[in-house]
């Protein structure tokens, strides 16, 4: 697999894909703070094997893995291990990627950018496509569960330069969308860019 | 769409599909009590539009809908409305369907039945197939979330004859698997049958 190390900037409201070799680390950096990233991961060469939130919860018996634990695919194989987290440590693995239907329901004009379309566009750049948008890992997104099973939507608390780092457990494609949500207050101060660093 | 009313028994460890017309009610009955059912729903004529746990959480801002609220598809269209619940009211929408990889990890001999394979077999009976197993709605399954984001696996508390009833918001295919899990104690007393009643 052709992979590169170095920084890929994800402009505000856009998405980018990186190819990551097994054993390499991939870091998502919140450049300006308060920004949610929708992260997707796929086995290299087969997008039908993909990071699965539901399988990861089953394997970890947690809503979100702890540092040292792995996110697994829909075939229950580790794909990314949570290696490090310099942020306040609040991330979401419950909520679907935003999409045109979401923005239509919120009253946005047609053409609002979305994480689902950012994923499709980033994959298309690699000649890949998915039939159904997988559930993302929403880094820096704060969706606390209250005792009654209610979910709250809070602004991201990540500070400028905060990051979350994963180690690839297999050759994979990682897509990160800098969430364009500006109608629900999850991105503190509005959409801003992220960076993806693939480390040596 | 060809649909029928009446009862479909789902034998222990097996799955069955029913076609449900918009406006009809479909009831899942725990015949002997303590049995988890993995429920999947697909838009009639297009299995790439499917009940989505992640989109349903986003739309309801809850871990599980309340009576009167709808489960939505990955296109955010209501597919099933939770109409009635005579059980203790504990259901899960966090955990993936069991599959051969799950049973291999638990040390089962090859060939153990699984909800993922039950889904595939039930869909195949209608000439349908999915690329990736969707996350099910696990009726009667008890997976409480503790304050620290940990998930517990408890035996189903449903009593003989308890049921959960949905109203179809669109023509759809509903698949129910009587979960064959017998290595983790979610099915109280071991796997038993369920019934699917499609009501007039």
Automatic annotation (TrEMBL), chains A, B:
<protein>
    <submittedName>
        <fullName>Uncharacterized protein YcgI (DUF1989 family)</fullName>
    </submittedName>
</protein>
<feature type="domain" description="DUF1989">
    <location>
        <begin position="9"/>
        <end position="173"/>
    </location>
</feature>
<dbReference type="InterPro" id="IPR018959">
    <property type="entry name" value="DUF1989"/>
</dbReference>
<dbReference type="Pfam" id="PF09347">
    <property type="entry name" value="DUF1989"/>
</dbReference>
């Amino acid at each position: 697999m052709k992979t590169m190390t170095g920084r890929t900037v994800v402009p505000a409201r856009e998405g980018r894909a990186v190819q990551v070799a097994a054993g390499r680390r991939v870091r998502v950096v919140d450049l300006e703070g308060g920004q949610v990233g929708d992260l997707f991961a796929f086995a290299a060469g087969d997008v039908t094997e993909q990071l699965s939130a539901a399988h990861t919860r089953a394997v970890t018996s947690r809503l979100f893995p702890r540092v040292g634990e792995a996110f697994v695919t829909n075939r229950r194989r580790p794909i990314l291990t949570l290696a490090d987290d310099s942020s306040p440590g609040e991330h979401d693995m419950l909520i679907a990627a935003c999409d045109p239907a979401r923005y239509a329901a919120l009253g946005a004009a047609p053409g609002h950018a979305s994480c689902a379309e950012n994923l499709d566009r980033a994959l298309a750049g690699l000649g890949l496509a998915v039939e159904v948008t997988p559930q993302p890992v929403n880094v820096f997104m704060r969706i606390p569960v209250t005792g009654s099973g209610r979910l709250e939507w809070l602004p991201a608390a990540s500070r400028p330069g905060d990051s979350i780092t994963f180690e690839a457990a297999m050759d994979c494609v990682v897509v990160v969308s800098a969430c364009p949500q500006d109608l629900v207050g999850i991105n503190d101060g509005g959409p801003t860019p992220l960076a993806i660093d693939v480390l040596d």
